[in-house]
């Protein structure tokens, strides 16, 4: 395939040139035997999901509670973070949003004997949280994994009672997700039963490789502040805030010194040699209080901060201007950084084929053939079943007048996919 050498900006943004329809996602239905009902789900796929030129990629999955309410805003955040800023800042994600059918049933882990503002009829419907998590684990996740190209990294996000469900999963089903995001969770539920359980569970040291972001809204009643609410046991809003701060304190006491100063907007990746020599990455916990947001307005800013925190090891401020200079000697920077990413995500994460391919072509365009060969070879090692990686190496060898080797690369590409442009290049060299 004849190519026009790409600009640095194009590499950074990894823009797809194919026309894409403007759609937010699609709706599917899964029948749950566990819950005894059909469940709608909303699915968001990255814009490059349907790309047919490069080898098909797999994507981490974000499972989102209160799906009807939060789907549009979270999709927009993910799209902005992962596509507008480029492939070295934030990973592309699949989003699976779960709308409610009976919210108070599914998002409460226990059935209390009494609960403020709930009558006996409403209380009788509560406590289905464990069945709901069973639906997610045993029915929804296998369904998503069977249809979509998912990676073994899962995020769980919820607000209010959804946040309570996230905390319950974090404490009692820790291995179900890799990252947990709870915004203003309803920790007063059932006389703070989950909060009381947390104090013992957090001592079990079972959270390696997991992360938790806790967001707290400003629900202080008139005349009280975040100190005074701790002594006001009569006000419902004061108890709500106090219980979340108590969870924060319990977490901070159990894990007082995280391995890095994880801040949502640090922009600096961890140093590889500071990682543990083997095994999963350490547990990461961060929290934030939002004095300008009440319970209802919290999700938008908190979800954005939480996503940045969850993947704050991902961003690589790559020095592209220096990279294209012939004096550049740090071509291993990309692979080293993705080793860091792999440790935190718990599986081997590879540099995107598109990005590495564009780097190789730009170096080839400036006649830095040896360095271009390094990146094309990196793609061959990482994506041996992609026809493109052999087609690209063939282009480099042809530019270097190594016709026989170029023909072999084109032949290898054609065994993986019959592409007219590749065949034309091979036949031209053969003549």
Kindly describe this structure.
This protein is an alpha/beta fold and 431 residues long. The chain has 2 domains: 16-310, 3-Layer(aba) Sandwich (Rossmann fold), CATH 3.40.50; 320-430, Serine Threonine Protein Phosphatase 5, Tetratricopeptide repeat. It contains 16 helices and 8 strands. The chain has helices spanning 8-13, 67-84, 103-106, 120-123, 129-147, 161-172, 189-201, 236-254, 299-310, 320-323, 333-345, 353-365, 369-382, 387-399, 403-416, 420-430; strands at 26-32, 37-44, 59-65, 94-98, 150-159, 179-183, 211-217, 284-290. An 8-stranded mixed beta sheet has the order 1-2-4-3-5-6-7-8, sandwiched between helices. Helix 8 links the parallel strand 7 and strand 8.
In brief, what are we looking at here?
By secondary structure, the protein is α/β, with parallel strands linked by helices. It has helices at residues 8-13, 67-84, 103-106, 120-123, 129-147, 161-172, 189-201, 236-254, 299-310, 320-323, 333-345, 353-365, 369-382, 387-399, 403-416, 420-430; strands at residues 26-32, 37-44, 59-65, 94-98, 150-159, 179-183, 211-217, 284-290.
